[in-house]
Design brief:
alpha+beta; 8-stranded mixed beta sheet; single chain; 3 helices
Length: 263
């Protein structure tokens, strides 16, 4: 398969940032991905002892489609978080500063007051943690051929960004990714990924990522067409390497575990 595009999502539930390349660390997360989340009222998240929380505790597209009208950018150099609406910058903050976090809370209180269960508060992931949906799959791959096949069956255009993947791939038959679970993918510079599971889709995919309109029923269409609600695969990074647009990933069999000798 060929890498068509790469994306990270600096803030859980908000917009993607396209990347030309990504340095993937062994055992780690997709770089710059899900660094922040915005809790919708008290979530119970403790940065001193971070524990994976259900996404329902945060602002998210599954319930809060208005988030799609915002475009988010994280500046790796300055550390600033920038939010734009309708092409105009509406917020620029330093997430580490109390003043910046207060301004972000005030912005969302004005932007979506009827969707809040309590004060919206920016959470920053501590070292070794990210606000991912999956507890163990920290890199997601979407097969563009599968999205195109679903679109043909539904008779509508489907933006692949509805599926919020990190890596969009092509040159792979539609739905062939579902058969890769339990196998490994090899890439440039010794990169190795372990495919651990298929991604079950929720109502977040019903929202147009450009307009914020809830205009399709993707999980229902998946179930009707294929008998499942899966689109995409989660991977672990076994060995690091840099992945760029145009790079190729090759599927290989996972090595058999070595059995202990019996004396």
């Amino acid at each position: 398969m060929r890498v068509a595009s790469l994306y990270r999502y600096p803030v859980k539930g908000l917009s993607p940032e396209p990347l030309a390349s990504a340095a993937l660390p062994a055992g780690g997360y997709f770089p710059g991905d899900r660094l922040f989340a915005i809790e919708n009222g008290p979530s119970g998240f403790d940065p001193a002892e971070p524990v994976h929380q259900p996404k329902i505790k945060y602002l998210m597209l599954m319930r809060n489609e208005s988030l799609a009208r915002l475009k988010t950018r994280h500046d790796d150099t300055s550390g600033e978080l920038v939010i734009a609406q309708e092409g105009a910058e509406v917020l620029r903050i330093a997430p580490a500063s109390p003043e910046g976090r207060e301004r972000l809370s005030a912005f969302f209180e004005g932007f979506m007051p009827d969707e809040l269960r309590g004060r919206p508060r920016l959470l920053a992931a501590p070292e070794g943690y990210r606000f991912t949906d999956s507890r163990s799959g920290f890199l997601s791959i979407i097969n563009l051929a599968s999205v195109a096949d679903l679109a043909a069956r539904m008779g509508v255009a489907i933006d692949p960004l509805r599926f919020r993947g990190n890596v969009m791939v092509e040159d792979l038959p539609a739905w062939a990714e579902n058969d890769l679970v339990g196998r490994e993918l090899e890439g440039p510079g010794g990169l190795r990924l372990s495919v651990i599971k298929r991604i079950e889709r929720c109502a977040a995919t019903n929202v147009d990522p450009q307009t914020g309109v809830r205009d399709l029923q993707i999980p229902k269409a998946l179930m009707q067409a294929y008998g499942h609600v899966d689109c995409g695969i989660y991977c672990r990074i076994l060995a690091g390497g840099t992945l760029s647009r145009g790079a190729r990933l090759e599927a290989v069999a996972a090595p058999e575990p070595v059995s202990a000798a019996i004396a």
